[in-house]
Fold this protein.
Amino acid sequence: MRRFHYCSVVVLALVFLMAGCSSTRMAYRYADWGIVWWVEDYITLTDTQRNRLNSNITEFKQQHCQAELPKYANWLTRLEQAIEQDTLSQATVRQHQADVFDALDRLTVEITPLATELLGSLSDAQVQELAQAMAANQADKEAEYLDPDPIAERRAREQRTLERAERWLGSLTDQQLETIHRWNQARGDQTRIWLDGRARWQQALLASLKARDVEGFADQVARLIQDSAAARGGAYQAMLAESRPALARLIADLLQQANPDQRQHLRGELAELKQDFYALNESC
């Protein structure tokens, strides 16, 4: 989950922290600290800003815990049932995929006021600091993900996909390796398009921050958060329209090719994640 730049991370940090940590419960409970630490990698906050951000995150996390975690657990239950009944066709995968994006849309809407308040409170010096940090981070991402050799770049992207698949399925079969290889070869310049769109979004955010004291600023930030693809350009939007169904096809193919051990591995990963969601919901 997969998935970013400054404001998007403020918006999505809870999801990323949960996805990237071995203990979902620990990640969720300490997500507020993680978000503040991440923000301060980009901006040196004042004590007032830090305290206000902490308070807003705590309030948001409580609301999110009560309203959203039960939905996540129910979604995982439906996914488990589909795996057990061997009904994960491409159409079913796309429906589960749509459920994930719906949850993400709700999250971005709910977190928009928090992000808008923080961005609106920045001083000119902090905006300049943010611009410099964004530029440095973008350069790091380009150095990490882009390669002058297109073949090497595709191989690196394929390796990242393999690692994600192995996290959920365990060791992959030769057939699955070939499936991922074919899928990756059809992705074209997605990495470059993603990074270009990322840079466009950052520039749009910085442009909006120049008018953060003007009426309409909150609406601009809301559009950037809730419809970020629009600011990333036509190439990004076209890539998104193609990549989502392509990813659904890949997932469906890998699951249909899965052997009993892989299905058991996947069920175990999902059961552990669902247990974490239930435990978190009980502690809300």
User: Anything to note?
Assistant: Residues 6-283 form one domain. The longest helix spans residues 90-120. The chain has a mean pLDDT of 84.
